Amino acid sequence: MSFYPQSTDHVPSDLIVDFDFFEVPADVSDPVDIWHGLVRRGAPPIFYTPRNGGHWVFLRYSDIAEAYRNHEIFSTHKAQIPPLEPYPVLQPNGVDPPQHDVFRKILAPMFTPLAVRRMTEGLQHRAEGLISGFASKGGCDFVKDYAAKFPTGTFLELFGLPEARLPEFLRISDTFFRSTDPDVRAANLLEIFEVLEELFREKERNPGNDIASTVVQSRDADGNPFPWEDIINCGFLLFVAGLDTVTNTMAYVWRYLATSPDARQKFRDRLDDPSAFLLAIEELMRINAVSSIYRRVTHDCEFKGVQFRRNDRVVLPNTVANRDPSIFRDPQTIDLDRKVNNHVTFGLGPHRCIGSHLAKREIMISLQEWLRHIPEFELDPDQDADSIFGGPVMGFTSLKLRW
């Protein structure tokens, strides 16, 4: 069965906008303006772009939220942009309810708030080790020296892999998230599969106390092992889901704090108040949503007065939803005491990010340890001009800080 989009003769000309979310306009210094520039220019709340294989874009919080929740129309299965076949059916996010419940139930106990709290000591040790390596140097490239290494190192530990493989995994994930070249992307997928095949076969022979071992030893309702392809695809999801998003969220958070002395002081004042600290982090997660999520239309239908055709792709930009003035009071203002904060940074509905508690804990511990070592810091005026990138996860390849 083909999951490629069909013709576009159902798309009215007034809903077509020439827009490429991978492309950074020359005058943009912040990747979020790739999206918010659309809103300022008055783009239709639902529009179609012929770029990257052709896809729809939703710009209203209410439409984005409904697309997250309504898997009967907006499926996660085979939703890649640009379309790429063959593409792995990620478990559990690449299938819809009820099939996705199988692997989600396996993974969920490992990412509960209690399970994540038990990781605190290890996360603190990793953060302290990285930060102490450059704290006395008066500056660093935050992305290269910390934000890329910390979540990837955490992934390696959770999967029972040695820290020595960090450069390899950084390279692989960078290609996965950045490249739009079909040949490069296909080769990258093969490499990821080879790595996961080796990992899970080793855990099958020598299981340990880690996520990979738990997944490979899990059994279905009849006591049988799960299909090997599903096990590998579950590993694939965990590989791509928790690395780049955390790295780039961190880059945005530290970029803001480097230019906001009052905000740094607020966080320093809350170092011994985890609840207030986390409340402030939630606001930074809202304003700094770095991911745009894909969906595929399951059948010809009408949604909000717009005609959709089976296999049409849809992009849901979280950064736009999180600044919708119909939902958030003063949405462009960063309010570290914001009490009502229904952001969609981790999605909504059945596919809401299972690792959200871990992501927030990684950022909280990183910031706590950073402020203990480096309470004051600022942006280095010598930034790399070409460090900005767009795509499904946007951010910076470099962020130079000094203190």
Automatic annotation (TrEMBL):
Gene3D superfamilies in the cross-refs: Cytochrome P450 (1.10.630.10)
PROSITE patterns per UniProt: CYTOCHROME_P450 (PS00086)
One Gene Ontology molecular-function label: monooxygenase activity
Keywords in alphabetical order: Heme, Iron, Metal-binding, Monooxygenase, Oxidoreductase
Cross-referenced Pfam families: p450
Keyword match Nucleotide-binding: no
Keyword Phosphoprotein: no
Protein family membership: Belongs to the cytochrome P450 family.
Protein name: Cytochrome P450
Species this chain originates from: Sphingobium herbicidovorans (strain ATCC 700291 / DSM 11019 / CCUG 56400 / KCTC 2939 / LMG 18315 / NBRC 16415 / MH) (Sphingomonas herbicidovorans)
